[in-house]
């Protein structure tokens, strides 16, 4: 089995090997294939990969499941990146501090200043620790995220430790994005050019709002609801700075942590069962016979041409 995560388009490189291919996107799947021509070619190859029942098309978050479906018509499997954390790293909340998760916006200093004006409990994560351990994170009351992406590996870890998470509601996130450009890593066009795009390089195959339209509020709100911050239960959402202050005063952090850990246990069990099912599908898996080999000459030619034309990340 060849698994391709980040970027998932790497699986194009391995198509001639006749192996089982698991394309599992952890971000927008066209990473490295952003031009219209390259993106369309990748879609064709992805459809070819999906046509073989031995293979798997998946994503670790619902946003990217829906995103791939929008542009290809395929229906990826949702395989979240849940992990069981060490017992020593689980939530204690012995500190009153609320950590501010890293932001990738040029407005991060202004937002940090605003948060500290709301409560002296807010501390920048790297300001407090520099380099930190999981057990250090779990000592704090909560972590606040002003999302710059729809799914973060650190969010899986923090949630699985039972650390309460604060995040703006979708509508308030749009307001912050409009004013302060906070969610600046959701689209590759924004990352590459620094400009918020109004549309995708290619049209989707399904009707609906363009996920890469960063200037339309309705499009933003339609797609952002699929982000992990709005799909996972027990994340504490605030719809204004005033509401955030109220949530700090009223939230029972231990109850929230216990509810998060209950959800994580069920989510890990479900994901493990799904992986067991996928890996156990030997009835659809037909490897090369022992006397067969991948066509070396064809493969060499393919790799040579691929390296000339493709962006390798």
Explain the overall architecture.
The chain has helices at residues 36-51, 62-72, 108-118, 125-129, 134-137, 153-160, 170-180, 188-193, 217-224, 228-231, 241-250, 253-279, 296-309; strands spanning 2-4, 21-25, 56-59, 77-78, 95-100, 122-124, 140-144, 165-168, 236-238. It is of the alpha/beta class and 313 residues long. The strands form two sheets. Strands 6-5-7-8-9 form a five-stranded parallel β-sheet.
Write a short abstract of this structure.
The chain is an alpha/beta fold.
Helix content: 40-55%
Strand content: 5-15%
* H-E string: EEHEHEEHEHHEHEHHHHEHHH
Indicate the low-confidence ranges by residue numbers: 283-297
Describe the strand arrangement of the main beta sheet, using strand numbers. 6-5-7-8-9
Structural class: alpha/beta
Distance between the termini: 21 Å
- Tell the overall outline: globular
Total count of strands:
9
**Radius of gyration, in angstroms, nearest whole number:** 21 Å
